[in-house]
Amino acid sequence: MVIGASATFGVLSLWRMQTRIRVLSALLTALSYMKSEIADRMTPIPELIEALIRESDPPVDRLFRRVAAGMGEIGAQSLYFIWRTAVMDSQELELRDTERQSLIDLGRALGRYDAEEQRDAFAYTIRRFEGYLRRAEEERRNQGRVHAILGIVVGVFVVIILL
């Protein structure tokens, strides 16, 4: 039982790494979609957000649900404020501070500049998230097995001590 509990810690760590990769990948897909819709098709932001709710994988869809919920406040609140609040409230994404800040920074450009400047802002954010995804994949490759094996080894070690 002790070995199983320790192994579970290792496996949970590996699962969290995999979940992080899935979230970063889903965010990259959403950012690419947003870039093409805003810069190429000139899709209005409210329409785009509704499409992202339908098209995005969980838990990323919840970020866009929060943005959509805040869209009723446009006028009283800026789109940037609504975007920033939605990003900050999306704790289920489990973003690191730099990743969260990259998304917040993107919000400064949303709807404020012409299509080309918004394209540049999306391109910059996409490049950053591609880097975050690469690092997360490297972490999983380098540390994933170590976490799983350490969980088992610790369990065996505890059993030996208890005998």
Mean pLDDT figure: 87
Q: Quote the distance from N terminus to C terminus.
A: 14 Å
Number of domains: 1
Strand tally, please?
0
Shape: elongated
Write the element-wise H/E pattern from the N-terminal end onward.
Answer: HHHHHH
What is the strand content? under 5%
- Helical residue percent band: over 70%
- What ranges have pLDDT less than 50 throughout 5 or more consecutive residues? none
Report on this model:
The protein is mainly α and 163 residues long. The protein is 80% helix and 0% strand. It has one domain (2-162). Helix 3 packs antiparallel against helix 4 (79-89), helix 4 packs antiparallel against helix 5 (97-107) and helix 5 packs antiparallel against helix 6 (115-162). The protein is elongated, with a radius of gyration of 20 Å. The mean pLDDT is 87.
Secondary structure layout plus pairing:
Blueprint: H1 2-40, H2 45-55, H3 60-70, H4 79-89, H5 97-107, H6 115-162
Short description:
The chain has 163 residues and is mainly α.
Key attributes of the depicted protein:
mainly alpha, 6 helices, 163 residues
